[in-house]
Structures are given as structure tokens and as C-alpha cells.
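Repro:
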Amino acid sequence: MLALVMEESAVKDFMGKLLREGIFNSFDVRNIEIATTIHISIDGVALDKEKELSSWDDLRPLVYTIIKASTKPRFIKIAFFFQEPQSIHKNAKAVSLIMNYENDNITFTTATSQVEFVLDKSLDMAWDDWVRGFFLQKGITVSDR
């Protein structure tokens, strides 16, 4: 598991990319929590029987509308799940990236789920490396916590 933090000076630019661009379109979403003057919880379970979760591409316009129409959020949590976990590691059942925004700070944590239980940490290392590379490729500056 990896814990990353974003520099406070980069948060505004990142939020613009997150909400307006498709940088996280390779992810599905398990759930979203947004706290403004009220608490909003969005369940990412897809109504389409062919998919388990909704894609970020489908949910992004809704989240953007909620945030744009509200006062500045106090808290946002998004549980992203990569759509092709087997491309990261053969033993990957699911790989996730959890984003937490609070008090103008953003942190990310990674998590993995294995198809078969093994004690080796190669899945965790492969996912953590992929996430670091993803952020670098997208021009998102984060550092280890």
C-alpha cells in the first residue's frame, strides 16, 4: 500500500484536471462522498448488468455539476478502481486508488485484492509503480507521505 500527498499549490490545477478532463477515464468508481453544506454519497454500482461499476467518465459530469453548484467542498472521497487489473499483475483481482480531499489537501492511497492469496508483495509493488508512473505521465506531482 502506498500513501501519496499532493503539494497544496497543485490542488486547484489537479481538481480542474480531475473534473474537466478525462485523466481518470481508465478507472471505474466504487463510491464518491462529497461534503459541502450537505453530505452527498454516490454509489458507483452500475445499473447496466454488463458492468459491475460505473466509469469515472460517466460519473464525472455529475460530480462536476454538484461541486460547481455548491459552496467549496469541505471533503471529497473517491474510490477509483482500475478497469484492467490483470494488465497490472496476473494475480490482481482488483486494484484501487483512493483520493481524499480535505482542507485544501489531497492524499491518495493504493490498495490491491488478489485472485489467489500469496505472501509475496509483487502485486502491491507493481500497482504502486504503475500509479507513480500514471501520475508522472499525467503531470500530477505527488510525493510519499
